[in-house]
Design goal:
The chain is mostly beta strands. It has 5 domains: 214 residues, Collagenase (Catalytic Domain), CATH 3.40.390; 89 residues, Immunoglobulin-like (Sandwich); 83 residues, Immunoglobulin-like; 134 residues, Sandwich (Immunoglobulin-like); 141 residues, no CATH class. Helix content is 11%, strand content 33%. The strands form 12 sheets. Strands 40, 42, 44, 45, 47, 48, 50, 51, 53, 54 and 56 form an 11-stranded parallel beta sheet that branches. The protein has a 7-stranded mixed beta sheet with strand order 1-2-4-3-7-9-8, sandwiched between helices. Strands 41-43-46-49-52-55-57 form a 7-stranded parallel beta sheet, with no helix packed on it. It is elongated, with a radius of gyration of 32 Å. The termini are far apart.
C-alpha cells in the first residue's frame, strides 16, 4: 500500500494560497518539498515544478517516475530537468509555456530500471507503475512501446486520486490533466495518450515526450512509413484520410477546396522542405503507409523525433493548448458581467504567451474605444458613458502560428465579455500585492513579455512601476505588461524590478525582481579529424564517408541547455548525442547514415535525417525515387537554446564527404627527403614530409600524402592508389593509368596537372560511377583531363584553377 507523506500538505497549502491570490515561487516550493530526503518505496511526494495559474485554468502536466530507487531521486530530477527544457525549447511549448502547470511526483521503486528492457537484462523489475516493454520477458529486441504492466495503471490512478487531484482541486480524470511517466531506462521507447510514457535516460527520451504529447494533446497522428520497424507499410487506400496533416489532394485541389493546410502551401517548413500536398515533389508516406498518402513537410516531430512540429501540426497544437485541450475555451477572468457604474474601472485578466501579447479591444455601443493601447483596464469615468450604454471587450490571440479564421475567431482563441451601464459595483478592499507574474524560476528571455497581475478594486487601478537596473521605465498606461524586446538591454544579465502601490489608499507595496538574460547561449563544436581542411573564412573539412560532431551547449545561467543542428537548411534537429550510445557520444553524419534498430540516424543522403532503414534501398520505382548516398559537400549549422528560451546565434561549417578510404601504409616517411623519391611497391605514406627532386610512382604502387611538400612535381604511371591531402606540389604533375583510386583534396599544385587514362573504382555501388576526385585544390597551371573512366568530379568542393582547363575537367 502506498503511504501518504506529510509533505503533500505543503503542496496543498501553497496551492491554496496561490489560488486565493498569493504569488507562487516554484523555487521556494521545491526547496520545501525536497527537504525530505528519507523517501522509501511506498512513499509519495508531490513537488510543484512550475505553477503559472489556477489548475482549473491550466493544462496540468504530471510527471511520474518509475524505476528510480530512493537513492536515485536526484537522477530523476535531472531527467525531469532535461525533459522539460527540451520541451520548452520547441514551439508551440516555448511560446505557450505559461499555459502549463507542471508537478513532479516522487515515488521510489524497489528496483532500478523497468521490466522486460531488451537492453537492460530483459527481466521483470519491482517498480511502482510496473512500466514494461512487453507483458512477458524477454521482450523483442526492437520493442519500443513502454506500457503500464499489471497493477501499474491502478497504482497511477490511486496516486492521482489520493495525492495529486486533491492538491489541484480537480477530478483525477479532469480533461486538463496529462500524465507523463519517465521510465528509468536508457532504451528508446514510449507511448502516447492521456497517460503517456517515455524513456527518461535515452538520448531521445525528451523527444519521445514531445512526440507523444503531439498525439495526446494535439490529436496528431504518426507520419511513419511503417507500423513495424523494418517493414514498409502498405499503400494507403484511394480515399482522403481523416487527418489534419495527411492528404491525397494535390496543391491545386487543396487550394480550390480551401481544405486542410491550403493556407500554408509554398511556405518554407519549420521542419524542412517546402510545405506541399500530393504533388510530384511532395512528401509521400505517413499514417503507417509507405505510399499513396502525403504529409506537409519533409520532416516533422511526428515522423522522426528530433525535428520541430511543422506549421500545419503546430497550428493545431496551438489551437488545442489555448483552448485547454477539450475545454474548448481560452481562460479569461474579468469584472463580473452585468451592470457596472459610470465611474467603475473594468478589468480583464488574460493568458500570457511569452513572446507576443494577446490583443484586448474595448467597445462602447459597438464603437471602438481609441487609444487604449491594449490595456486590460477601462476607466469608465473618463469616457462620459450613460445609463444603458453597452460595454464590450474582446480578447484575441492573433499569433502568427495560426491562420485559420475559424480557429482565430473561435472561443479557443477569442473571448468576449460584456457589461451594461447601470448600478455601480460595490467598493472592495484589496491587498497591495502581486497575484501572478512571469516565472521567477528562471531568468527572463531578452525578448519575452514580462507580466504581473494585481488585485482589481472597482474604482481604481493599483499603480505598477517598472525599473531596469535601478532606472524607472516609462509606463504611461500603467501597464502590467512589459515588452523586453523593445528595450535597449545591455549585453549579459540585467535586473528588472516591478513594484505595485496604491497611492492615496495604502502605504503598502509589493515588489518582484527578475534577472533578464541578454546573453545568448552557445554550442561549441568539436569535429572528428579530417583528411584535410580547406582555406577560407568558414571551416570546411574533407572526410571519407563520415564524420563526427560533438556539441557542448553552454550558458551563463543555470538550467539544462538544449543543442540543435541543421543539415543543409532542412529543419532544426535536436542534438542528443547518438542513439544507444553513452552520454557525451558525438553525433555521426554518414553518407547513408547509421542503422540503429531499423532506424537510420545522421543520413547525408536522399530524404535527409528522417529516414527508415528500408528507405535506403529505394529505387526509381519507390515512392521517393532512388536513394542516393550523400557524398558531396554539406552545410551544418548548430546553436543552443537556454533554459529561459533564448535562442543563440547559429554557427556553421562545411563538410565534404568523399567516397573511398585510406589504404594501410606499408611505409611512412616524414621530414626532409632529398634527391627525389620513387615509390616502387606497397603503400608509401608521406606525413609532413618535404620531398626535393620530384616524386615518381611506378606500376602497382600507391602513394598517400598528408600535409607534405613535393618540389619537382609528381609523375605516376600505372599506380594503384594516389591520394594527396593538404599537400603542396611545385612543378608540373601527371597522374596516369591509376587502377583503383585517385583522390586529390585541399592541395596546391604550382604548375600544370594532367589526369589521364585513370580508372576510378566506385567505393559505393549504390552511388554509382564517378571519375578521379579533385576537391578543393588550388591549381596555378594548366589542367588537362583525358581518357579517364568518367568525368573528373569535385563533389561540391570547388577548385581554384588559374590556368586553362581542357578535356573532361573543363566543367570544374
Amino acid at each position: 500500500m502506498l503511504r501518504k507523506k506529510p509533505t503533500i500538505f505543503t503542496l496543498i497549502l501553497v496551492l491554496s494560497l496561490f489560488v486565493s491570490g498569493m504569488v507562487f515561487s516554484a523555487d521556494d516550493s521545491v526547496k520545501q518539498t525536497n527537504e525530505s530526503t528519507d523517501l522509501q518505496p511506498g512513499d509519495v511526494n508531490v513537488v510543484p515544478l512550475q505553477i503559472t495559474g489556477p489548475p482549473e485554468e491550466r493544462l496540468n502536466l504530471i510527471l511520474l517516475g518509475d524505476g528510480y530507487t530512493a537513492e536515485e531521486m536526484d537522477k530523476f530530477h535531472a531527467d525531469v530537468d532535461r525533459n522539460q527544457n527540451v520541451q520548452w525549447s520547441v514551439e508551440p511549448f516555448r511560446s505557450y509555456r505559461n499555459y502549463f502547470n507542471v508537478y513532479v511526483v516522487e515515488t521510489p521503486s524497489v528496483d532500478s530500471g523497468i521490466s522486460c528492457d531488451p537492453d537492460d537484462g530483459n527481466v521483470r523489475m519491482d517498480t511502482v507503475y510496473n512500466l514494461q516493454y512487453a507483458n512477458q520477458c524477454p521482450a523483442d529486441a526492437l520493442a519500443r512501446g513502454i506500457t503500464y504492466g499489471s497493477g501499474g495503471a491502478q497504482a497511477r490512478n490511486e496516486i492521482l486520486a489520493n495525492h495529486v487531484a486533491p492538491a489541484l482541486g480537480l477530478s483525477p480524470n479532469a480533461q486538463n490533466i496529462q500524465t507523463l511517466a519517465l521510465a528509468n531506462t536508457f532504451t528508446y521507447g514510449g507511448i502516447g495518450g492521456v497517460h503517456a510514457t517515455t524513456s527518461a535516460g535515452s538520448p531521445q527520451g525528451p523527444l519521445v515526450s514531445l512526440h507523444e504529447l503531439g498525439h495526446s494533446l494535439g490529436n496528431l497522428q504518426d507520419e511513419y512509413a511503417y507500423r513495424d520497424r523494418g517493414v514498409p507499410g502498405a499503400p494507403h487506400p484511394n480515399s482522403e484520410p481523416n487527418s489534419i496533416h495527411h492528404t491525397r489532394m494535390t496543391s491545386e485541389e487543396m487550394i480550390q477546396r480551401e481544405a486542410k493546410w491550403w493556407r500554408w502551401l509554398g511556405e518554407e517548413s519549420e521542419s524542412g522542405g517546402i510545405i506541399r500536398a500530393a504533388d510530384p515533389d511532395g512528401y509521400e508516406s505517413g499514417l503507417y503507409n509507405g505510399s499513396n498518402v502525403w504529409r506537409p513537410s519533409l520532416h516533422s516531430m511526428m515522423r522522426h523525433t528530433g525535428f520541430y512540429f511543422d506549421q500545419v501540426s503546430r497550428e493545431h497544437m496551438v489551437h488545442r493548448i489555448t483552448g485547454m485541450r477539450n475545454a474548448g475555451e481560452m481562460p479569461v477572468s474579468s469584472t463580473p458581467e452585468g451592470e457596472v457604474g459610470e465611474s467603475d474601472v473594468l478589468w480583464v485578466e488574460t493568458m500570457h504567451p511569452r513572446f507576443h501579447m494577446l490583443d484586448v479591444t474595448w467597445e462602447i455601443n459597438g464603437e471602438a474605444v481609441n487609444n487604449t493601447n491594449n490595456s486590460r483596464y477601462l476607466a469608465l469615468s473618463a469616457l462620459s458613458v450613460e445609463q444603458g450604454d453597452e460595454i464590450k471587450v474582446t480578447v484575441q490571440d492573433r499569433t502568427e502560428f495560426v491562420r485559420d479564421p475559424q480557429h482565430l475567431d473561435g472561443p479557443r482563441m477569442t473571448q468576449i465579455r460584456e457589461w451594461i451601464i447601470g448600478e455601480a459595483l460595490p467598493e472592495i478592499d484589496v491587498e497591495v500585492k502581486f497575484t501572478n507574474s512571469s516565472s521567477q524560476e528562471n531568468a527572463l528571455a531578452y525578448d519575452e513579455i514580462a507580466f504581473v497581475q494585481t488585485p482589481n478594486p472597482n474604482d481604481r487601478m493599483l499603480t505598477v512601476t517598472w525599473e531596469l537596473n535601478g532606472e524607472e521605465l516609462p509606463n504611461p498606461d500603467n501597464s502590467r505588461l512589459l515588452d523586453l524586446s523593445a528595450l535597449d538591454l545591455p549585453d549579459g544579465a540585467s535586473e528588472l524590478t516591478v513594484t505595485v502601490t496604491d497611492p492615496g489608499f495604502s502605504d503598502d507595496s509589493d515588489s518582484i525582481t527578475w534577472i533578464v538574460d541578454n546573453g545568448l547561449p552557445t554550442a561549441p563544436r568539436t569535429l572528428s579529424d579530417p583528411l584535410t581542411s580547406l582555406s577560407g573564412d568558414e571551416e570546411h573539412n574533407i572526410y571519407f564517408n563520415e564524420f563526427d560532431m560533438f556539441l557542448d551547449p553552454q550558458d551563463d545561467q543555470p538550467g539544462f541547455v538544449v543543442g540543435e543542428l541543421r543539415l543543409n537548411g532542412q529543419g532544426w534537429f535536436n542534438y542528443f548525442g547518438f542513439p544507444d550510445e553513452p552520454e557525451g557520444t558525438p553525433f555521426t553524419f554518414a553518407h547513408s547514415g547509421t542503422d540503429v534498430k531499423e532506424l537510420t540516424y545522421g543520413n547525408l543522403g536522399s530524404f535527409g535525417l528522417s529516414i527508415a532503414t528500408f528507405e535506403r534501398t529505394y529505387t526509381e520505382d519507390d515512392p521517393y525515387g532512388p536513394f542516393i548516398p550523400g557524398f558531396g559537400t554539406h552545410t551544418i549549422e548548430h546553436r543552443a537554446i537556454d533554459a529561459t528560451g533564448n535562442i543563440g546565434d547559429a554557427e556553421e561549417f562545411q563538410a565534404t564527404v568523399l567516397p573511398g578510404d585510406l589504404p594501410e601504409c606499408t611505409d611512412t616517411l616524414s621530414g626532409n627527403i632529398n634527391g627525389g623519391l620513387t615509390v616502387k611497391e606497397g603503400v608509401t605514406c608521406l606525413d609532413s614530409a618535404q620531398v626535393r627532386g620530384g616524386l615518381t610512382v611506378e606500376n602497382g604502387a600507391s602513394l598517400i600524402a598528408f600535409d607534405s611538400s613535393i618540389n619537382g612535381g609528381i609523375k605516376t604511371s600505372g599506380g594503384e592508389v594516389i591520394q594527396l591531402f593538404g599537400t603542396t606540389v611545385n612543378g608540373n604533375s601527371a597522374i596516369t593509368g591509376t587502377s583503383s583510386n585517385i583522390t586529390l583534396a585541399g592541395n596546391s599544385f604550382n604548375g600544370g596537372l594532367t589526369l589521364s587514362q585513370n580508372n576510378q573504382i566506385s567505393a559505393n555501388e549504390q552511388y554509382g560511377e564517378y571519375g578521379p576526385i579533385l576537391s578543393g585544390n588550388d591549381i596555378s597551371g594548366k589542367l588537362t583531363c583525358t581518357g579517364n573512366n568518367a568525368t573528373v568530379t569535385d563533389f561540391g568542393a570547388s577548385n581554384n584553377i588559374s590556368g586553362k582547363q581542357s578535356g573532361d575537367c573543363g566543367g570544374l
